[in-house]
Amino acid sequence: xxxxxxxxxxxxxxxxxxxxxxxxxxxxxxxxxxxxxxxxxxxxxxxxxxxx
Length: 52
Hints:
Elements: E1 2-4, E2 10-13, H1 15-21, H2 25-28, H3 34-37
Antiparallel strand pairs: 1-2
């Protein structure tokens, strides 16, 4: 979960938000959310991928 205030500042960041982005709360909380939107999201196995 990510919480963003009316000004677009990240005010909360959970482990579930860290997993797909790779950003821990210490690097995100207090920053404008727009700074995250222009970064490439790390790629990894999809949580919905089937394992054969």
